[in-house]
Amino acid sequence: LSLSLSVRLSVCLIFSNFSCSLNPSPTSPAPFFEQGMRVFAISDLHTDFPENLEWVQKLSNQSYKEDVLIVAGDVSDRLSTLELTLHTLARSFRAVFFCPGNHDLWLHADRGRFRHSLDKWRWMQDMCTRLGVHTRPACVAGVWVVPLLSFHHLSFDTEPDIVHPLIVPATKWGRDYTSITFPDGLQCGSEEAAQLVDRLNDELDSDLGPATFGAAPVITFSHFLPFQELLPEKRYLFFPNLPKMAGSTFLGNRVQRLRPHLHIFGHTHIGWDMTLEFPQGDGSVHHTRFIQAPLAYPREQQTKMNGGVERMPFCVFDTQRQPPPPAETGDATAARDRGSDAPAKTDPSDPASLVKDKARLSEGLEAGSHRIAKGCCVDGHGFVPQQSFHWSDHYQGNSRDPHNLEMAPWVASRYPKG
């Protein structure tokens, strides 16, 4: 992509306060964990809804004083509500990390105040600095937390489409295409816009990587999905075109380069806990665990497809769960490939179990340069054991078949034939 001078200036301006102030040694020692610290994750708070804002305000001011909270985007499109929410969370937690989602970048409530959505993000950065909220990588008590900026693009979806006259095109669904703008006229949903946002990470993580992290636990997070395997197949979705506005291949490439133990994401409001395995050039296999823990809309909280509000915020790491690991004697990144066998948890009473293909996964489903790991969970270093979520449980026991375009009964009822 050849960026114009104006876009380059925008990138530089946005990152004038975004570069990581940490300067860790490229040969970090084995981690020292501060006992008693936990890491929680949550996404899609949507505190524009009074019920969700009330939930945030009712969080204990004492129970999380030693803990870290990762907020993976979509807090509010209104800056006043966003600031109130983050301020409230910052009072409850030792450290709060934040990256923006698409709702946070909407401009319909701020028309005329910002030139484009990246200007609004720069304002949010300054606000987070005032509130003491992290928008850049930091190592807290021996655990690396790395925010990653991203934006969705249509070409992220590489799976066959379901064709039906009542299925709304992705570009006509939701507010992103009318409420989010980019510099230099770049179009929402284009690869160019998604790559521009991804390039904002270059200064953030240009010096970060496995050599920097050493043996320390590493958690990256984004709002959007880095891989399409973290979303049910289109035949299961009420809006089958959702994958076209769900993720970023640029983000996926960046996650693979950083090789975290765990990546937190949001956006789809579908609770998830799955490990993907990535074959390396030397013949080894790296495992990264992916978790989505959304608060979601109040109406969605009743279905518990998001995991259930009583589980939020969702604990992903606990230093008291096990003693700190010993110093590595070999390749420090070998620690990232630990896993444990967990049984498939497909619930026969769930709608997902109505599908006909019950083939068990043996070696995992090939998916380009990565694949779903059967029953494998990155749970060393203090990470909590793999948790049960409806759809990620389903794919532990059922193969992914995106070429099957027969709508599930609950989807077909919305799109009648004839």
Name the descriptors.
single chain, 418 residues, alpha/beta, eight-stranded mixed β-sheet, four-stranded mixed β-sheet, 13 helices, 14 strands, globular
Structure characterization notes:
The chain has 418 residues and is an alpha/beta fold. Helix content is 24%, strand content 14%. The protein is built from 13 helices and 14 strands. The strands form three sheets. Strands 4-5-6-7-9-8-13-12 form an eight-stranded mixed sheet. A four-stranded mixed sheet has the order 3-2-1-10, covered by helices on one side. Helix 3 runs parallel beside helix 5. The N and C termini lie far apart (44 Å).
TL;DR?
By secondary structure, the protein is of the alpha/beta class. Helix content is 24%, strand content 14%.
β-strand amount: 5-15%
Q: What is the typical, i.e. mean, pLDDT?
A: 82
The largest sheet, given as strand count, sense and whether it forms a barrel, is: 8 strands, mixed
The stretches of 5 or more residues where confidence is low (pLDDT under 50) are 1-31, 323-368
Question: Given the C-alpha coordinates, what overall shape results?
Answer: globular
Strand order of the largest sheet: 4-5-6-7-9-8-13-12
Q: Radius of gyration, rounded?
A: 21 Å
Count the E strands.
14
Count of DSSP H/I helices:
13
Oligomer: single chain
Kindly state the percentage of residues in helix: 10-25%
Secondary-structure-derived class? alpha/beta
Helix and strand string, N-terminal first? HEHEHEHHEEHHHHEHEEEHEEEEEHH
Distance between the termini: 44 Å
